[in-house]
Amino acid sequence: MTKFLIIDGTALVFRGFYAIPNLANSEKQPTNAIFGFYTILFNLLLEQMPDYLAICFDRPEETNRKKDFADYKAQRTRAPDALYEQIGPIKEILTQGKLGLIEKAGFEADDIIATLAVKNQSPDLNTLIYSSDLDLIQLINDQIFVLKPGNSKTGNIIVKTEDIITKYGFSPLQVQDYKGLRGDSSDNIPGVKGIGEKTATELIKNFQNLENIYANLDQISPSIRTKLENDKDNAFFCKKLATLDHDLEVDYNLSSYQISNLDFETIQRKLEQLEMRKLVEKMLKLKNKFSQVKPPEAQQSLF
């Protein structure tokens, strides 16, 4: 059984930046995000030992969702400039080191992740998506899992279909229907006015999806029915906003993301230029471990 590790690169930049404050090299170039990003990445690779690796990034251009809904993610505050200054060096190492960087103007990293995961679904491939973004749980099935970042006590946590059902009361396939009703404050998606978490969950449990809910309004209490009727267009629009696009025109060929493509010498040189000796030590450990890895066909499933 082979393994495809897909990482939300943009989220990892933020995670690295805030995990390692106030770090700079001798030229006073901020390096905390770079150091944090690659520390987490190398640890993750050592832990998971994937056969394929893709690291997906947002781009600064306006996205398709932003064009459709001007207030999409409008409540989010801009991060410090020091974070954005380090994205270029992070991507440079990814590109030159052949670490599976992928991005597409006009689309979010989540949609790229969805495309890579869905297009490569196979009984012979386990796909792990490293992210804490709840939008991505809609992709979970028997071959696709979310690897939720943990801490020193819990470690990273593999999230499966049964975990979503236990926690939320509905399946991964119903996440976008739930968000159509409840909305999503993290993305500034409003949902149906007056429908809260409990009501949205009960409606999904009873009617499975948004289409069935509106086809059976006569079976719903008058007060809730009125809210649904008043906000029908918004409900379906919000569901559309919450639904990931898994059909982007991007390179989803697995051969482009083989871990054997990694150029460790280039990665080492770039890290040394940034004066990151500890990261070089960790990278050399990673290089040594990958040199001893068994062929994919000799590996066993972890699930």
SSE layout and pairing:
Blueprint: E1 2-8, H1 9-19, H2 32-48, E2 52-57, H3 64-68, H4 81-96, E3 101-103, H5 109-119, E4 125-130, E5 144-148, E6 157-159, H6 161-168, H7 175-182, H8 197-207, H9 210-215, H10 222-230, H11 232-242, H12 264-273, H13 277-291
Parallel strand pairs: 1-2, 1-4, 2-3, 4-5
Antiparallel strand pairs: 5-6
Can you characterise this structure?
- By secondary structure, the chain is an alpha/beta fold.
- The protein folds into two domains: 2-161 and 245-298, 3-Layer(aba) Sandwich (Rossmann fold); 167-242, DNA polymerase, domain 1 (Orthogonal Bundle).
- It is 46% helix and 10% strand.
- The chain contains 13 helices and six strands.
- It has helices at 9-19, 32-48, 64-68, 81-96, 109-119, 161-168, 175-182, 197-207, 210-215, 222-230, 232-242, 264-273, 277-291, and strands at 2-8, 52-57, 101-103, 125-130, 144-148, 157-159.
- Helix 2 (32-48) crosses helix 4 (81-96), helix 7 (175-182) packs across helix 8 and helix 7 (175-182) crosses helix 11 (232-242).
- It is elongated and about 65 Å long.
- The model is unreliable at 298-303 (pLDDT under 50).
